């Protein structure tokens, strides 16, 4: 259990939160939970949310200095700002860092959440938030700030999460089925949550999710065609990739499954790419990246496909897929539109 879990249970919070780590699913889930606790829903008067390059420290300072309007607090949410990725160590230590300065000046009624895909642990701001670096001028201490890092779940932690996810929908899953799911799909929680949603719907009225249910839901023609699509993308064969996609749509295959399969495939390539040239045996690499047993024999072929992409391209595609998936869930973006936007991005150099 994270310290943040206790805060959410007790409704007693640090004023400044930094959420980060490789498991983006948990970063986003806890960010949403904090926003729900600390703000009144769609309260634009008291809640400011900014993404990426649109995040501006001066706007943040101006908004945060105002008193809350008919509420207990003002909340600022900064997402993927990259403010914790550079150096800034000396400026933080000497008291000349603008972000630390403005946080120290904000009134007690203002809280701030930073949700970052990646941070540099040598970054001065990260070290300051973690209590490992002091600023000569700021009076902020660790009692004001909390860093929560979310690592990829594995082993019993991941199995418990799968069982808990199903239980939230009043559904049980057998122990063997819970182990089978990551064995087939890997440990990416975005993908696992999508498949669990399908399984929960598929097993409505049944006592529990069993191995045969997973076999029925996670296999099929879509995965095979998506493998072919990704191969076509890697070869720069736009016409072939689009033809395969259009055939799936024409045959009324599930757009949800197409999107999920694309996400799984590119996530696998992204993980494999990090082992390129490592000299580690392919079977060991396949296990490390969480390839399901049923397709580990394809690891060598997948690695050849991964070699055709730049690492940054695969990283961007994995992140873009996650963003589109969130927009489908939160603002109602049409799943087919999301899938086609993703394909366009994949086919664009």
What is the ordering of alpha helices and beta strands? HEHEHEHHEHEHEHHEHHHHHHHH
Helix and strand composition category: alpha/beta
Low-confidence stretches: none
- List the total number of helices: 17
Determine the fraction of residues in helical runs and give it as a percent range: 55-70%
Euclidean distance between termini CA atoms: 42 Å
Question: Main beta sheet, described?
Answer: 5 strands, parallel
Tally of strands: 7
- Categorize the overall geometry: globular
SS strand fraction: 5-15%
Compute the CA-based radius of gyration.
Answer: 22 Å
What oligomerization state is this entry in?
single chain
Name the average pLDDT: 87
Q: Strand order across the biggest sheet?
A: 2-3-4-1-5
Explain this structure to me?
Helix content is 55%, strand content 9%. The protein has 349 residues and is α/β, with parallel strands linked by helices. A five-stranded parallel sheet has the order 2-3-4-1-5, with helices on both faces. A two-stranded parallel sheet has the order 6-7. Helix 9 packs across helix 10, helix 13 packs antiparallel against helix 16 and helix 13 packs parallel to helix 17. The longest helix has 20 residues. The model has no long low-confidence stretch (mean pLDDT 87).
């Amino acid at each position: 259990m994270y310290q943040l879990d206790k805060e959410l249970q007790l409704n007693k919070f640090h004023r400044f939160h930094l959420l980060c780590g490789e498991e983006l699913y948990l970063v986003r889930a806890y960010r949403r939970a904090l926003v729900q606790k600390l703000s009144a829903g769609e309260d634009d008067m008291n809640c400011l949310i900014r993404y990426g390059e649109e995040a501006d420290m001066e706007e943040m300072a101006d908004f945060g200095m105002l008193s809350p309007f008919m509420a207990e607090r003002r909340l600022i949410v900064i997402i993927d700002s990259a403010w914790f990725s550079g150096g800034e160590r000396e400026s933080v230590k000497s008291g000349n860092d603008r972000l630390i300065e403005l946080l120290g000046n904000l009134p007690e009624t203002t809280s701030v959440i930073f949700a970052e895909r990646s941070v540099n642990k040598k970054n001065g701001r990260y070290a300051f938030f973690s209590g490992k670096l002091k600023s000569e001028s700021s009076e902020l201490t660790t009692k004001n700030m909390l860093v929560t890092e979310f690592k990829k779940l594995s082993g019993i932690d991941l199995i418990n999460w799968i069982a808990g996810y199903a239980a939230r929908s009043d559904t049980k899953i057998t122990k063997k089925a819970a182990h089978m799911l990551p064995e087939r799909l890997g440990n990416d929680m975005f993908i696992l949550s999508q498949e669990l949603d399908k399984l929960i719907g598929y097993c409505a009225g049944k006592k529990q999710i069993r191995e045969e249910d997973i076999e029925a839901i996670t296999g099929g023609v879509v995965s095979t065609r998506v493998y072919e699509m990704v191969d076509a993308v890697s070869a720069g064969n736009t016409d072939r990739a689009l033809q395969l996609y259009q055939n799936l749509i024409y045959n009324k295959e599930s757009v949800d499954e197409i999107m999920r399969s694309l996400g799984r495939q590119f996530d696998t390539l992204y993980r494999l790419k990090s082992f390129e040239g490592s000299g580690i045996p392919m079977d060991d690499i396949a296990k490390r990246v969480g390839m399901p047993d049923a397709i580990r024999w394809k690891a060598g072929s997948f690695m050849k496909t991964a070699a055709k992409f730049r690492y940054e391209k695969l990283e961007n595609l994995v992140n873009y897929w996650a963003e589109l998936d969130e927009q489908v869930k939160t603002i109602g973006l049409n799943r087919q539109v999301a899938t086609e936007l993703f394909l366009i991005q994949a086919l664009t150099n």
